[in-house]
């Protein structure tokens, strides 16, 4: 450090630690985990009594969304309460969403640190209201680990897409969200959709029109596509 004229504040240094806090998470040899104090604050938060109160809680929960497989879908009943001209009414559906997000973050996995020397895989899924994806990687011990989850709610026009179009939208979304890891890397893609044949036909040109024509070069140039059992949105 002296040779390169780098300086450090000794009071802010940590030496020989198993993990260190960094930007709202803890980094260790096993990966990245959510800050337990933030998770505790989310879990202990009382039932919101106003839009302002809910917005504060969601702001805290949103920060940890990468630890939850279907965060956008779970949060939908809550974000609906924050829409313009929405009438405040805390329903049983809102309560279930509130508790589901708490539970999801309390049981969040330790995310793997990406290894640029190993291939990545991307898994995508779509529901009637949201799309989601996960960046995965097999570690040195042969375990498939999650590097990050990402999801978002569908826009009004996107809700009218057929199932295979929603799956393709999820793939495009995943490749954009994870591009910093995927550019120049070996990668495979998978969808949970049972309509895999339609997805493949859409990409191959049999029914390539509109937004599919725009998406397909981007998706096909990034990864081969297969099918994976299960769903984020069960």
From TrEMBL:
Residues 90-186 form the Reverse transcriptase/retrotransposon-derived protein RNase H-like domain. The lineage of its organism: Eukaryota, Sar, Stramenopiles, Oomycota, Peronosporomycetes. It comes from Phytophthora fragariae. SUPFAM superfamilies: DNA/RNA polymerases. This is Reverse transcriptase/retrotransposon-derived protein RNase H-like domain-containing protein.
């Amino acid at each position: 450090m002296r040779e390169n004229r780098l300086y450090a504040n000794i009071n802010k240094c940590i030496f020989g630690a198993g993990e260190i806090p960094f930007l709202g998470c803890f980094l260790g040899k096993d990966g990245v985990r959510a800050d337990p104090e933030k998770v505790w604050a989310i879990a202990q938060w009382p039932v919101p009594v106003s839009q302002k109160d809910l917005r504060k809680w969601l702001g805290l929960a949103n920060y940890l969304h990468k630890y939850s497989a279907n965060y956008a879908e779970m949060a939908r009943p809550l974000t609906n309460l924050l829409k313009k001209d929405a009438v405040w009414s805390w329903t049983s559906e809102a309560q279930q969403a509130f508790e589901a997000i708490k539970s999801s973050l309390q049981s969040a996995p330790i995310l793997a640190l990406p290894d640029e020397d190993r291939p990545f895989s991307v898994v995508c899924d779509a529901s009637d209201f949201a799309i989601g994806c996960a960046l995965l990687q097999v570690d040195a011990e042969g375990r498939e680990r999650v590097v990050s989850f990402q999801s978002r709610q569908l826009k009004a026009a996107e809700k009218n897409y057929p199932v295979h179009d929603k799956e393709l939208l999820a793939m495009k979304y995943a490749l954009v969200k994870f591009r910093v890891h995927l550019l120049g890397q070996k990668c495979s893609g998978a969808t949970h959709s049972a309509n895999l044949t339609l997805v493949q036909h859409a990409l191959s040109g049999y029914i390539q029109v509109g937004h599919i024509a725009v998406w397909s070069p981007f998706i096909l140039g990034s990864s081969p596509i297969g099918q994976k059992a299960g769903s984020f949105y069960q």
